[in-house]
Amino acid sequence: MTEAVKGPASYFPSIEKKYGRPIAEWKDIIRSSPLTRHMELVSWLKTGHGLGHGHANALVAHTLAEDAGK
Predict the structure, then answer these.
(1) How far apart are CA 65 and CA 48, in angstroms?
(2) What is the Cα–Cα distance from 41 to 25, expressed in whole angstroms?
(3) Domain-wise residue ranges, the chain
(4) What pLDDT is attached to residue 33?
(5) Residue 70 has pLDDT above 60, yes or no
(6) How far apart are CA 6 and CA 53, in angstroms?
(7) What does the alpha-carbon distance between residue 50 and residue 68 come to, in Å, rounded to a whole number?
């Protein structure tokens, strides 16, 4: 039996459906930003790219955690 996806990644299917871009592209957009702080990036995605708060937060949290693990 497969486990349900939890945490920020649980938002990924709805993000791709609603905004029409793959998650890898959103991560590239986040990484291309000169901003580095979580809430700055969330605000930037909301105002500059039209994402809702929960979706922006999930993308930023997942991307920053992934980058911290490298």
Answers:
(1) 22
(2) 15
(3) 10-68
(4) 97
(5) yes
(6) 18
(7) 26
Phi, psi of 65 (to 5 degrees): -65, -40
Query: Does residue 2 carry a pLDDT above 70?
Result: no
What is the overall mean pLDDT for the chain? 94
Which residues are CB-neighbours of 43 under 8 A, at least 6 positions away? Answer: 56
Tell me the two tokens of residue 65.
Answer: 């955690």
Q: Alpha-carbon distance 40 to 17, whole Å?
A: 24
Question: Cβ distance 10 to 61 under 8 Å?
Answer: no
- The one-letter amino acid at 6: K
Phi, then psi, of 36 in degrees rounded to 5: -130, -20
Q: How far apart are CA 54 and CA 52, in angstroms?
A: 6
Instruction: Tell me if 33 sits within 8 A of 44, measured CB to CB.
Output: yes
